[in-house]
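To: structure subgroup
Subject: Chain for Friday's discussion

All,

I'm putting the inputs and outputs inline so they're searchable in the archive.
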Amino acid sequence: MKNLDDVANTIEARLEEKYQVREVAIKSARVITRLSGSIVHAIHSGGETSLMMHEAIDETHRLRSLLDAYPELWHSGLVEGALQELAEAVILIALLDDRDIPDPDDMGIPVNAYLLGLADTVGELRRFALEKLREGRPEESAKYLDIMEEIFQMIMMFDYPDALISIRRKQDIARSLLEKTRGDVAVAINSARLQKKIDSLSQNLH
């Protein structure tokens, strides 16, 4: 086995290269996660999102190029979580702007990350629904509830084992959030109707 050392050196060189690429990918994924979180925060606070969105998408393209030779890393958990956060931010902006949600292929995001990100928008939409309820605008809150319903029906179409996509827990969470929001909106709308009747009776008595 005269070539044993040569084989070992070849394997070591390739593993070292993959290790270095992995380290860069981890840092890139953290940047995407941070930017995506900042985008969602800005959406809720009414801040500007376009610059951060461009940065996040550019970073995603750089990460994709870096991992062209390592597709197993591109589809790994260390990258999927970041892409899921980005998908959630991009989809949420589209929903709030009343636009069609982007296609995962157009975004260059794996379908698993995209679907999990879509499921997470249900929680963000609930936050908007509750905000409208606090503002005393239950009819506007019901619009967010309708979107939540549509997304829930869509994600429930996917019944696959966790080994293929870990969607079941998010489906359960979405179901719980949807049921809570239905109750909150129903109570608020009924209360508003009752208050109108009371106000009307009070005016008639005067």
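Points worth raising on Friday:
The mean pLDDT is 92.
Helices lie at 4-45, 50-66, 71-74, 77-96, 104-107, 111-134, 138-155, 168-205.

D.
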